[in-house]
Amino acid sequence: MILVLLGYMGSGKSLVGRKLAEDKKFEYLDLDNYVEIQEKKTISQIFNDKGEIYFRKKESEYLKEVLESKIDVVISLGGGTPCFAGNMDLLKTYSDLKSIYLNTSLDVLTERLFVEKDKRPLIAHIKEEEDLKDFIRKHLFERSYYYNQADVRVTTDNKGASEISVEICENLF
Fold first, then answer.
1. How far apart are CA 119 and CA 141, in angstroms?
2. Which of 139, 87, 150 is nearest to 113 (CA)?
């Protein structure tokens, strides 16, 4: 079985993904880390050197590669992965794959991301917290169509990784 976590950046996909993999005795893979290893550059460097379009193309190629080669794995996608290159449709073609949307509120995302925005190429340029909130709001609106196609939706506000992992397992198994 393949479990795929999706949601906006800062929703906890990596943290929850590691915990869920540990709980289920599955392998864990973070797609952003995989892209960085394959490209031998950080996501920020890829964005700066080659742009978002190049990144999205490579991200989709690596997602296909990973899905074809893995079983009993939890995969954390990048926040935009489901929204580009037909990736959400691709996920739906796998009968042994379950997608989980980690739904996190606008306020929680803004709080989490403002303190780490310098590490995130899409938001590094934003200086004010209210501007960041507006940016996230717009993205959530645009991306909700894709996120809401997930097999399972879990609200993450005020929950730790262990609690979220248990809730996912209760919904899937």
1. 23
2. 139
How far apart are alpha carbons 36 and 6 in whole angstroms? 18
d(CA 107, CA 113): 10
Contacts for 66 with CB less than 8 Å, ≥ 6 apart: 29, 31, 34, 73, 75
| Whether the predicted model's global pTM rises above the 0.85 cut | yes
Task: Give the chain's domains with CATH numbers.
Answer: 2-158 (3.40.50.300)
Mean pLDDT, 10 residues at a time, over the chain (173 residues)? 96 97 96 96 91 94 92 94 95 96 97 90 90 96 96 96 96 84
